[in-house]
């Protein structure tokens, strides 16, 4: 059986500022990206059809020689300019239009371009309602997680370490989504909710090992790392396989969820074993927040 050996990190060779600088710089860059996106687009992320409203059409383009040729025919066949054209399976394309497009005209033009497989319309008002509900769900989940952590530990600094890590684990993937063009949809919101669970799990594992179990501080950290890092790397490997498989079969949603989870889990490793460890050591040895 292949075992995953997690090396012991010599934390005593680094002071708290050295441990904090990397996760804080990454978080600051992510916040700048999201802030800049909001200034340029009026939204902190690329919003999908469910949130903005619009029309989505699936067209079969059998007999077309290449993807580039199919995209060209689709763009030329519609009077309105499509927001996006995605190939989701063999010679099947999803064409998206913004809110306000004439659905009946789009349907008629789609039948002339190729084989119309499906058409879906979401009104702008309905999309705004879904957006409010989804963001509210993330906010409630984050608030509930924060309350639970404070109830479990009943001390300020360890609890804030868990909350800060979870916040960064969400913010960094959203910034990456903006950079690589992944839209915020109900599916990607679900991925962000999963990241909250992953983050809390690994951080509580670390905090429990340090605060509630016997042993030296560094021994407790290394004990938590052997379990936590193995668990996270195993999850990352599964997500990488899912992402590659989904990309191969043209399943965009699963591919996007896999990318978000891989980025979030990498961020969680950094936050848990740099940010959280530094704050716990500060609390343990200097008595801050006791």
Describe what you observe in this structure.
There is one protein chain. A hairpin with a 2-residue loop joins strand 2 and strand 3. With 290 residues, the chain is of the alpha+beta class. The protein has helices at residues 16-41, 49-52, 67-77, 103-113, 124-153, 156-180, 186-211, 217-249, 252-286, and strands at residues 54-60, 84-89, 92-98, 115-122. The model has no long low-confidence stretch (mean pLDDT 88). It has two domains: 11-48 and 126-286, Multidrug efflux transporter AcrB transmembrane fold (Up-down Bundle); 54-122, Alpha-Beta Plaits (2-Layer Sandwich). The two termini are 44 Å apart. A four-stranded antiparallel sheet has the order 2-3-1-4.
What attributes does this structure have?
single chain; 290 residues; alpha+beta; Multidrug efflux transporter AcrB transmembrane fold; Alpha-Beta Plaits; 2 domains; 4-stranded antiparallel β-sheet; 10% strand
Question: What's the layout of helices and strands?
Answer:
Blueprint: H1 16-41, H2 49-52, E1 54-60, H3 67-77, E2 84-89, E3 92-98, H4 103-113, E4 115-122, H5 124-153, H6 156-180, H7 186-211, H8 217-249, H9 252-286
Antiparallel strand pairs: 1-3, 1-4, 2-3
For the largest sheet, list the strands in their spatial order: 2-3-1-4
The poorly predicted ranges are none
Helix and strand element order: HHEHEEHEHHHHH
Taking all Cα atoms into account, the compactness measure Rg is: 23 Å
Q: For the terminal residues, how far apart are their CA atoms?
A: 44 Å
Major sheet: size, sense and barrel closure? Answer: 4 strands, antiparallel
Strand content: 5-15%
When the domains are counted, the total is 2
* Top CATH class of the largest domain: Mainly Alpha
Determine the mean pLDDT.
88
Helix content class: 55-70%
Shape: elongated
Q: Could you give me the name of the CATH homologous superfamily of the largest domain?
A: Multidrug efflux transporter AcrB transmembrane domain
């Amino acid at each position: 059986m292949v075992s995953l050996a997690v090396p012991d990190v010599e934390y005593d060779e680094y002071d708290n500022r050295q441990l904090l600088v990397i996760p804080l710089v990454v978080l600051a860059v992510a916040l700048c990206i999201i802030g800049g996106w909001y200034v340029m687009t009026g939204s902190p992320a690329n919003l999908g059809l469910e949130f903005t409203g619009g029309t989505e059409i699936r067209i079969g383009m059998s007999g077309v020689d290449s993807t580039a040729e199919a995209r060209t025919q689709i763009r030329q066949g519609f009077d309105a300019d499509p927001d996006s054209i995605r190939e989701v399976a063999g010679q099947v394309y999803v064409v998206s239009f913004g809110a306000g497009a004439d659905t009946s005209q789009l349907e008629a033009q789609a039948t002339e371009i190729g084989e119309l497989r499906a058409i879906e319309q979401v009104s702008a008002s309905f999309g705004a309602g879904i957006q409010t509900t989804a963001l509210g769900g993330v906010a409630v989940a984050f608030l509930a997680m924060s309350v639970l952590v404070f109830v479990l530990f009943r001390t300020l600094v360890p609890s804030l370490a868990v909350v800060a890590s979870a916040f960064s684990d969400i913010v960094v993937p959203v910034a990456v989504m903006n950079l690589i063009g992944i839209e915020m949809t109900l599916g990607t919101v679900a991925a962000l909710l999963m990241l909250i669970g992953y983050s809390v799990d690994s951080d509580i594992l670390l905090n429990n090992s340090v605060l509630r179990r016997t042993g030296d501080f560094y021994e407790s950290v290394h004990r938590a790392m052997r379990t936590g890092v193995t668990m996270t790397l195993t999850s990352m490997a599964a997500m990488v396989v899912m992402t590659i498989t989904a990309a191969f079969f043209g399943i965009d949603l699963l591919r996007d969820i896999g990318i978000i989870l891989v980025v979030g889990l990498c961020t969680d490793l950094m936050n848990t074993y740099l940010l959280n460890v530094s704050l716990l050591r500060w609390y343990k040895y200097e008595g801050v927040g006791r």
